[in-house]
User: Fold these one by one.
Assistant:
Number 1:
Amino acid sequence: MTSERFKIAVLASGRGSNFKAIAKRCAEPGFPAQVACLITDRPAAPVVAIAEEFGIPWHPVLPGDKKGRLAAGEEERIVGLCEDARVALVFLAGFMRILRGPLLDAYAGRILNIHPSLLPSFRGLDAPRQALDYGVKVAGCTVHFVDASVDGGPIVMQAVVPVEDGDDAETLAGRILNEEHRIAAASIELVASGRIRVDGRRVRINT
Ligand code: GRF
């Protein structure tokens, strides 16, 4: 009997640099997870070409009329796609639609999100810009479990970068993004290898 690798679905809406970093790591021999599929609300987004380059199946879902929402029934469809592919973990990598219902219920404690700030500071959109405007001296990124709050679930990993005097939102976001790529894959590795235990708000990592 061949043992099946831990399967993940990635949900993404845009450029797809985190998706690419995850797909690359998952393609390395010995990595404990594999990307079963990409699910996107923007079939024309660059992330789709990356999925095709890696031979990863992708599925479009319909955006709703309201900004930031999915069309009625689409979150249920995501659950169906994930269950059909026997997905054990859902990773949100720049997915620009709010999930509040069926996916959170079906995959409670099994959804991760990556956010470009040191949470709980600077939730929501344009986090690197928010950090610059506030005048912080260090910034960074966070991988956290997703619950019904906005960017508020238990934190799995964070990485810190300096804010340089000459930074604008773009240069700071680029520095943060390099760290995102690292901790996105590292968090998946931890979960897939069963090394994570969630204890209230604290995520404990077995060494
Ligand atoms: C990243 O900064 C991520 O933290 C945020 O959306 C951005 C997605 O970038 N949630 P990419 O599509 O992975 O390049």
Number 2:
Amino acid sequence: MSRTRTALLAALALVAGAAGTAIAAVPDDVGAKAIPCTVDYKVQNQWSTGFTTAVTITNNSAAKSSWAVKWSYAGNQTVTNGWNSKLTQSGTTVTAANETYNGSLATGGSVSFGFNATYSGTNALPTTFTLDGVTCNVDDGGGGPTDPPDPGTPGAKVDNPYSGAKVYVNPEWSAKAAAEPGGSRISSQPTGVWLDRTAAIEGVGSGMGLRDHLDEALEQKGSDQLVVQLVIYNLPGRDCAALASNGELGPTEIGRYRTEYIDPIAAILADAKYASLRIVTTVEIDSLPNLVTNTGSRPTATPECDVMKANGNYVKGVGYALNKLGDVANVYNYVDAGHHGWIGWDDNFGASATVFKEAATAEGATVNDVHGFITNTANYSALKENNFTIGSTVNGTSVRESDWVDWNRYVDELSFAQAFRTQLVSVGFNSDIGMLIDTSRNGWGGTARPTGPGATTDVDTYVNGGRYDRRIHIGNWCNQSGAGLGERPQAAPATGIDAYVWMKPPGESDGSSSAIPNDEGKGFDRMCDPTYTGNPRNGNNLSGALPNSPLSGHWFSAQFQQLMQNAYPAL
Ligand code: BGC
């Protein structure tokens, strides 16, 4: 019996950052990068017995007058015909050599070719490519024309900026947290600084502006290393599938986004005064996946997301931000990548990675402007479900068939983030990208936390009885009842993960539970109203939101208290 899978939107994005407490010092994996060549191997189309691939090679070494690229397949893939290269296959090894007309490959130059192939079983991507015998996509340890400066020289980037570094404590958030009963237990944790409108660059009202934060960061840094976490969040037509965080720029205002928002931020970050800070940016929460899941013929589509897809301004805006901010030597860009309860379904997973690649190569950006990706920003997805895995079955039925999992490929955020990292590398992002996971509100502790697996009566009793994530539906995203603080911010907690961070500042609302007039461009989204019975993006369930909430970004004391109460690990 098949169930319909709902493509979910979730998410609102909020973030919080890190605290001035030192995050566990892990030796830096630094090293001058010298990637002699990159091979971007993209499966463009795949059916049950065949596929079409496009390959782009970029040469970062001396110019060539002829070339040959080689890779091997793990399975029985067999090349049948191609274009723009001479293809030969011997066993599992394929060689693509230049045609007479495309043999010359300058330093920094690229060439593309394509082919069709057959396969059965799994079409696993090749993992290693060589160009004229030299391995591509990995650092050869030496210098090269595209190498960033060596670590130790100003502007050098390290592999994981969080390793061996403290993280900036936002004094404004810290003061609000400390003013709450019991709040001093977490008020020195680092949280994200949200540049959620143009005015935030100078400071809204009497609030701190970007320079104020960076000056304070230099104080907190002292002679140590320090990461500052900024959230870049002001796209034209922002939050196209929801209303609570609609922003100030209309769908067509890409020009203002570039010149009034990104350019001034980039100019401040490029000030030599701040060159010793490690500046992490979280780029545009909840934008690009909306183009995949909430457009066109999807039941979850919104007219607003269709507009943003058609005008290309999310892709352009993200590309522009990555390019400009990426030009600053000490900026580490992390692109927002939704969460497993949004893009963990097969239909969304590969397509989202492809859109990220499109944005990362728009408006002058390249994949080298992307240091990594962040998942679960301002969302509530559990980090790790210990009472079942995606491979679990109950009486022969997969947990994927449960109402909760609903055919998703992932049951928790850690497994998703690690797998998505691999997917991103396979579409052409650098093999050393790292992931961040926002654990500010995904703890799900307290008395409702299951202590063991659910009853094996059927998949639903099993999954619902055992899951830590107590949401009514995984598509719910606003001020969730029962949520708790998650893992404290920490560096290099798991393979492929640069850090757990609190990008959404705990205690800041996701949206108001009833309409509140305001001059921030914020709308009233009924997903924040506890009496709302839902829409296709949450399977038409109750919203699970706490009552009496203020506008998104505003302090919500009751939520802050609940998050502390249900913290896991407990405070
Ligand atoms: C709001 C922003 C706010 C952020 C962090 C977002 O939902 O739209 O205004 O800065 O949350 O709390």
